[in-house]
Amino acid sequence: MLMFTAVLKRNFTALDEAVRRAKQDEIIIPFGVGIAGTVAQTNETINIKEAYKDPRFNSEIDQKTGYKTNIILSMPICNYEGQVIGVAQIINKTNGSPEFTERDVEIFRRYLTFCGIGIQNAQLFEMSVQEYRRNQILLNLARNIFSEQNNLECLVTKIMTEARELLKCERCAVFLLDLDCGEALSRHVPNPSIKHQTVDRANSAIEF
């Protein structure tokens, strides 16, 4: 899916207010639908002089925003590898010109080159932050687990509790093989926020 924000007003607002309005005005466009969706799919620039006469134009966006599109220039935003990571559009000249000129196209292309670099850098930074947080969580889990080395039952409970919280699952079970009797000994830790039915002991492993 392709998402873009329609800016309906030109008045300046505080950053938090602008972000709030952007989220409210967010419009989701299916990949390959409309001008923006087509640009995302084909990685080609589209420059239209009369939007409503072009079959690729999706007038539903104008109906949602209350804005009348006459001319439109839509261009892909690409990363270092030339892959499309977004689409930018400019609509209707303010100087009365009936079209976006070749000079407009070239300026827009150069501008979006820097936009693509900025967006990809931001994505890479976000990924590095998320990876750092995941590594910190795993490191803390390892510390907690190894702190219970002297008590098997506490260790197993700790493993299951931490795994359930980390993976956001309803239930976690650890099975240990008892080499003396050939049976699997298990311990279950359900999520306390979710109600579970009683386990049929006849069909389950031995619990302790």
UniProtKB/TrEMBL annotation:
<dbReference type="InterPro" id="IPR029016">
    <property type="entry name" value="GAF-like_dom_sf"/>
</dbReference>
<dbReference type="Pfam" id="PF01590">
    <property type="entry name" value="GAF"/>
</dbReference>
<dbReference type="InterPro" id="IPR003018">
    <property type="entry name" value="GAF"/>
</dbReference>
<protein>
    <submittedName>
        <fullName>GAF domain-containing protein</fullName>
    </submittedName>
</protein>
<feature type="domain" description="GAF">
    <location>
        <begin position="1"/>
        <end position="129"/>
    </location>
</feature>
